[in-house]
């Protein structure tokens, strides 16, 4: 009977060790879930911040593009003469060599 008593005590000790290990692992899992939740919240905040920045930068680039188009339009208007020329006036139907030899 001593053998069975010793065996039961050994199994009981192993059981209590397993219960303690289970509690420790449950605590670890709970802490990891809290950390995961905090990191997920932080990621959402950072993502919103980046989305806001990207939106602002897109608006700014669109404004700069509009200003650049206006500047280019002004330059084009300054380069064109006040009296419009007819297109095609400078084009010759005959090559210069034909006119010079004839």
TrEMBL record:
Where are the coiled-coil regions? 22-74
Name the chain's protein. Protein phosphatase 1 regulatory subunit 21 C-terminal domain-containing protein
* Protein phosphatase 1 regulatory subunit 21 C-terminal domain: residues covered: 4-70
**What are the UniProt keywords, alphabetically?**
Coiled coil
**Does the entry feature the keyword Coiled coil, yes or no?**
yes
GO CC term, one of those recorded: membrane
């Amino acid at each position: 009977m001593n053998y069975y008593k010793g065996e039961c005590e050994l199994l009981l000790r192993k059981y209590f060790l397993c219960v303690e290990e289970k509690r420790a692992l449950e605590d670890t899992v709970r802490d990891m879930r809290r950390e995961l939740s905090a990191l997920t919240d932080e990621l959402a905040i950072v993502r919103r911040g980046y989305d806001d920045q990207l939106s602002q930068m897109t608006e700014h680039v669109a404004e700069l593009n509009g200003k650049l188009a206006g500047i280019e339009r002004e330059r084009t208007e300054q380069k064109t003469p006040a009296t419009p020329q007819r297109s095609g006036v400078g084009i010759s139907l005959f090559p210069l060599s034909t006119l010079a030899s004839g």
